[in-house]
Amino acid sequence: MCQLNKVTVNDKVQSKSHKVSLQDEIKFVVSSVNTLSIVTPENIPLDIIYEDEDLLAINKPNGMVVHPAVGSTNGTFVNALLHHLGFRQAEEWFQSSKPKQQSPPIQQHRSVFRGRHRRKDAADDVEDDILIDLPETPEAARASPLLLRPGIVHRIDKGTTGVLVAAKHPIALTRLSKLFANRQIQKTYLAVCVGHPGDITISQPLARSPMNRQLMIPWDGPDGKPAISHVRTLCFDGKLSVVLISIETGRTHQIRVHLQHRRTPILGDATYGNAKWNKQYEASHQVSRPLLHAYQLQFVHPFRRQPVLLRAPLPADVRTIVEKISQNALSSTSSVREPVSLLDPQTNLLLDTVVPSGDSPTSSSSESQHSALPTEWWDEDGGLVIDNRPHRRTSRSTQTTPIITKKQESNRWYVPMERLRLDEDDLAWMRHRLLQEEEDDDTEQ
């Protein structure tokens, strides 16, 4: 704008090197603004690794942008998501409160149990792109930037592959967003890096570079935001390492900057990596992007209250380098070569001996903990069955339903449905289901 003489200081055109002073009056003219139209569906194939009526998870390929933005208006995951769900445009998504299709759940690869609780600084997480406040009317939706990213609860970089989960309707979006905001979703990445980072927890605050706002830098000053990455080295061949990183925070470019700060940058990273190594492996192995893969997500399903473990098979470029490193791995105690088995050749997933099923996050609320129970624990009338004698019972009052009672015909203790505590989201979802059933009944009549 300064080069176009569209910026004035005290009514005089100035260059961008001009130093302003207190009380200066700065004016600028915006001749045109790049705007994006409503997102439209596109028939783009998706590598779906999990789907039910509420959630969708894919193995995102290299080069796919998550949602439209200036410069990337088409070919994004959002365009493909809208087409997959059957919406004609993004506005319809915000007006919906249930999925367009009822897909049967796909069985998970593993089982996961229990987990960590919410952290006190959970709200201070920026890269997860928490989207909780949804537009309530079509007019609000048209004016909202969320119209460009319906269903999106987190993002991974264009050059990063791996697990990307999305919501299929607004209520699911709200619940998933809360899981990310409360850090109740465990995220594990696999990377190939130059050198040997070892097994270490990197706790280094990050901030945006004052010279280039698109870059992140280690920063211990007041503007630095806490960032924690747990790094585990799986194997090292004397030059490159295969590492797993689980992150407690979700800062922009966190893993890439942390490994650069450790002086073991990710191979192929043109922004934070080693130019010499990048050039060498681009020529020999066609490595043209950061070898970073979002390998695993673990969480409790926001509706079914059951553990979910999502794993994305390694893409070909990462798999080729990982196999080469593992076949030439050095012993941890000597310089002797000891091949390491990391991958299952059938699934292209890491072996369970490498990444055992860990603990999945559970909600810290009693409602969520009591809801994450096997189906057979529920009574046919909707109550919670308790086979053992309860620790306490309420007084035999005829005015209220007991918290714990006993079915005479089955001689089993259970909690009546009307005494189960439900949060507002659960109630809203139940009301919607009831209304939908009433509408369906009216249609049939």
- Find the structural class using helix and strand composition: alpha+beta
Radius of gyration based on Cα positions: 26 Å
Tell me roughly what share of residues is in helical segments. 10-25%
Distance between the termini: 64 Å
Tell the overall outline. globular
Structure summary, number of beta strands? 17
- What does the average pLDDT come to? 76
The low-pLDDT segments are 102-143, 359-403
**Main β-sheet, in a few words?**
9 strands, mixed
Order of helices and strands: EEEEEHHHEHEEEEEEHHEEHHEEEH
Sheet-strand content, in percent, reads 15-25%
What's the tally of helices? 9
Walkthrough of the structure:
With 445 residues, the protein is of the alpha+beta class. The chain is 20% helix and 19% strand. The protein is built from nine helices and 17 strands. It has helices at residues 77-85, 90-95, 138-142, 170-181, 254-261, 275-285, 316-327, 366-371, 424-444; strands at residues 7-9, 12-13, 26-28, 48-51, 55-60, 161-167, 186-194, 200-203, 206-208, 216-218, 228-236, 240-247, 292-300, 307-311, 384-386, 405-407, 412-415. The strands form four sheets. Strands 4, 5, 6, 7, 8, 11, 12, 13 and 14 form a nine-stranded mixed beta sheet that branches. A three-stranded antiparallel beta sheet has the order 2-1-3, with no helix packed on it. The radius of gyration is 26 Å and the shape is globular.
